[in-house]
Amino acid sequence: MLKQQQINEIENARSLAKSQLEELHRNEKNYQETVQRLEQQINEQNSREREQIDFPA
Fold first, then answer.
1. What letter does residue 56 receive in the DSSP assignment?
2. Does the record's keyword annotation contain Coiled coil (predicted)?
3. Is 57 helix (H, G, I), strand (E, B) or coil?
């Protein structure tokens, strides 16, 4: 019985580790998408500022 309990604990630990790894992958993807959006916003803002410097109203 002890051996079956150990097997169950190992399977539960593996399942938890798999879930945590999947969550980390989702978080990494969300982080990368957020960074890309912020970089795009910065680039757009820089472009607008350069236009205002080069062609003031």
1. -
2. yes
3. coil
